[in-house]
Amino acid sequence: MKCAFVGAGAVAEKYASGLEDSELRLTAVCDLDVDRAERLAADHGATAYSDLDTLFDAESAPLIVNLTSHAAHADVTSACLEADRHVFSEKPIALDADRALALVETAAGRGLALGCAPINHRCDAQRHARSFLDDGRFGPIRLGYAHAHVGRVTEWHDDPGSFLDVGPLYDGAVYPLSLLVSCFGPVETVRSADALDVWPDREDRAPGRPAHVEATVEFASGPIVRLTASLYAPHRSREFNSLELHGDDGSLYLADSGALAAERDTVSVGGAGRPYVAAPHPQPRRERRYLAGPERLASAVADGRIPIRSARRAAHVVAVCNAVERAAADGTTVPVPDAETDGLDASDLRPSSIRPSYRDATVRRTAETADRIGPPVRDAAIRLPRVGFGCSRYRDGEYVDRIDSIATALDAGYRLFDSAELYGNETRIGDLLDAPGSPDREGLFLIGKVWNTNHEHVSEACRGSLDELGIDAFDSYLLHWPEAWAHQGPLSDLASKPVAEREALTFPTDADGNPETVDVPLEATWQRLERLHERGLTRTLGVCNVSLPQLERIVDAARVPPAIVQVESHPYLPRTDLIEWCHARGIRVVAHSPLSAPGLLDEPPLREVADDHGVSPAVVALAFHVDRGVVPIPASNDSEHVVSNLAAARLRLTAADRERLATLEDPGFER
Known about the structure:
Elements: E1 2-6, H1 10-16, E2 25-30, H2 34-43, E3 47-49, H3 52-58, E4 63-66, H4 73-82, E5 86-89, H5 97-110, E6 114-116, H6 124-134, E7 141-149, H7 153-156, H8 161-184, E8 187-196, E9 212-219, E10 224-230, E11 243-247, E12 250-254, E13 267-271, E14 277-278, H9 292-302, H10 309-330, E15 334-335, H11 370-373, E16 389-390, E17 394-395, E18 398-399, H12 403-412, E19 416-418, H13 426-434, E20 445-450, H14 458-469, E21 476-479, H15 499-506, H16 522-534, E22 541-544, H17 548-557, E23 564-568, H18 576-584, E24 588-592, H19 604-613, H20 617-626, E25 631-632, H21 639-647, H22 655-662
Parallel strand pairs: 1-2, 1-4, 2-3, 4-5, 5-6, 7-10, 16-19, 19-20, 20-21, 21-22, 22-23, 23-24, 24-25
Antiparallel strand pairs: 7-11, 8-9, 8-15, 9-10, 11-12, 12-13, 13-14, 17-18
Helix pairs in contact: 4-5, 5-10, 8-10, 12-21, 13-14, 19-20
């Protein structure tokens, strides 16, 4: 779509930087400073103009991107709408609430799209923060603190005049306010406010409005947020554009509410009674470009839609800023006039549930259809988090308590937890999942596993684990090992039993000290697992520690094919053949023990790749799996390692990295 920029200053350069690979084509640039317009236009093969009317007469571009100074936004947007052009405006949409609302009504009345920055609610860090707000872990949010320290624009901006004229509310506070309105809906009342004319005596130019503003705003949905906006507090102060929210059951901290990209530590979470822990965004870093707002608006118009929602939200934010100014001037509580305006409900940006459906991607084979459809297949792989957390209690041959690290993993944002009746800690995990500060069940993918001694008692084992965890169904229930051992009775709450008793129950031996095996066909055990699926006790099925021939036996006999195969894998033991076989059939692969192979983390190729990316060797070893579409499930009792392991999902390996890591494969690897 053709577009025209009105305004050719510093922010226009930022928008223009994304044009090269955009579907938007800049055909005109208009600015009162014709030299500036000509410079930007020349860079992009556009025509320069010095007044709007001439541009409207000469250009057919249906979209105008309004990048003028703060105070000019409303007049320019109005003129563009009157000329029947769609408009995307930089913030604020206006400086007066009535004027802002009139622009929205004009756009709606003329059937024109109207959008407005900021687009921060659609950026990765903010959406990641939103995912924690939406998964129920915090309980009701009741209190918040928002900062917008624009800083002393005379020190960091070449042309600070516009910023000084409008003050910190209309340039800075719009970031946290827009995000908060997106999350919680409209502000109902400004409960109190104060404004200070603080400014360094040495400065020749002073703000035209109070340089520092504080307010307490109440949202119609309940949260009360203290807002601080300042031109006096330096923008490099500890709290720059931060947002902190507190609920009954936990807290969330967003370091920069206006961030265009999610850094590793931008979001932090603290469950009830627990300290903050970094919650890394689980994808490679992606910076949302300034042009994304106009591009989204243009795409909607091309699809026959006429969006005005972001403009309506922007108009409400202006109304809040106006109310803050009145409250500060009058010393009174001020209602926000358009708090009940349609379209200001919280934006629906919630991620889909991570749990698979019971019928997820499964083709069943019955006696009547076996000849017709052949072996069962999965027509799509289930969706899994890129990195999971292993709940095994074994470490270097010793039992360890993982509960505190599992709590840290929950706060850090892990969504997949791998448990088993063998680990003996399902009761404690269940208590943790039921405690304040844990996400709702729909926000987690829980794996359980039946132990070797229960191949003929699969139903009892599964129901026992479900009872201990306090859940109705697993997301996937797996066969821990294909080999069956002699039954020793229920394996409930093993962690509470003495070590000798645990070992006797879980590792029975014959007279020669070897595992006491029993003859239970693998296919028969799989049939027992399938009955669990039919009864709704697990949404999908899986198997661990199998060879490719064993897996082929299961798939050939199955009515419900495995959704997950879990095996040991790392650069020494990549299991490429098995992984490719599984992926070709829509089966996800989970890698256990991804970091524990002796000597792995000291390998020079691994360390070289780590040095190149500025990360630890462990992060590279985990990214090795993510890069192949395999889900590693590391475990750690070190809180920093818990966080950095999850952040491995952010690392994007290069072809050269893959070649170096491939040299570590060891066909003879054995533990």
